[in-house]
Amino acid sequence: MTTVATTKDALAQAKTRMEKAVEDFRKDLASVRTGRANVGLLDSIRVDYHGTPMPINQLGTMNVPDPATIVISPWDPGAVAPIDKAIRTADLGLNPTNDGKVVRVPIPPLTEERRREFAKHIHKVLENHRTAVRNIRRDIKEAVEKLEKDKKISEDDKKRSLDELEKLTHAETKKIEDLSAAKEKEVMEIK
After folding, report:
1. What gap in Å lies between CA 42 and CA 23, rounded to an integer?
2. Has this prediction a pTM greater than 0.70?
3. What is the largest CA-CA distance in the chain?
4. CATH says 39-106 is which class?
C-alpha cells in the first residue's frame, strides 16, 4: 500500500504512475509489427556484442529508406554478424540480409492470420495495462481512505479526492484505449 501525507500528494503520485503505465503501453505497441518498416520494431532485440547483451540501437544507426526496409549501419563492422543473428532469433518473423557492412531487414507483408494474431496480442497488452492503471487507482484510493481514517483529512476532502482520482483513471484508460484502437487499425490495414 502507498503512503502519502496529503490528498494532493496522492493525486500527483497517481498521475505520475498512470502516465508511466501509458508510456510503457506506447513502447509495447511500438514493437508490434504492422507491415510497414519502423525502427521501433527492433527496440526489444538485444545483441550479444563481446559477451554483453546490448540494445540494437546502441550498435549503429538505424533508418528506414523505404516503407518495407530497415537498414542498420553498425559503427563496428564486426557487429554485423551478431546483429543479423539477433534479429533472426528474435521470433519477429524477419529475415535480415547483410553485405558485411550493413544489415538490411525487409519487412514482409502480413498475412491475414498474422494480422489477427497481432490484434489479439494488442488486446492482451491493453488489458494488462488497464489492470495496471486500476491497481494504481486502488492503491491511491486505499491511501486516501487511510488519511481519512487517521483523521488527517475530512470526509469531504476524501470524496473530492476520490472523484478526481476517478476522472484521472478514466482519462488515462481512454488514452490507452485510443492508442490500442489506432494500432489495431494500422495492423489490420492492408497496404
Report:
1. 17
2. yes
3. 70
4. alpha beta
Q: Where are the domains of the chain?
A: 7-30+111-188, 39-106
Are 39 and 59 within 8 A, CB to CB? no
Looking at the predicted structure, is the pLDDT value of residue 1 above 70? Answer: no
Residue 123: HSE in the Cβ half-sphere, 13 Å Cα cutoff = 7
Q: Is 138 exposed, middle or buried (0-12, 13-18, 19+ CB in 10 A)?
A: middle
Rounded mean pLDDT of 76-104?
87
Class of domain 7-30+111-188: mainly alpha
Locate all alpha helices (DSSP H) within the chain, ordered by sequence.
7-30, 80-88, 112-149, 155-188
- 69, 62 in Cβ contact below 8 A? no
Mean pLDDT (the chain) is 87
User: Residue 188: pLDDT above 60?
Assistant: yes
Distance of CA 21 to the CA centre of its chain: 8
Reduced to 3 states (helix: H, G, I; strand: E, B; else coil), residue 3 is: coil
Quote the CA–CA distance of 167 and 169 in Å, as a whole number. 5
Please report, to the nearest 10 degrees, the dihedral formed by the alpha carbons of residues 22, 25, 27, 30 taken in order. Answer: -130
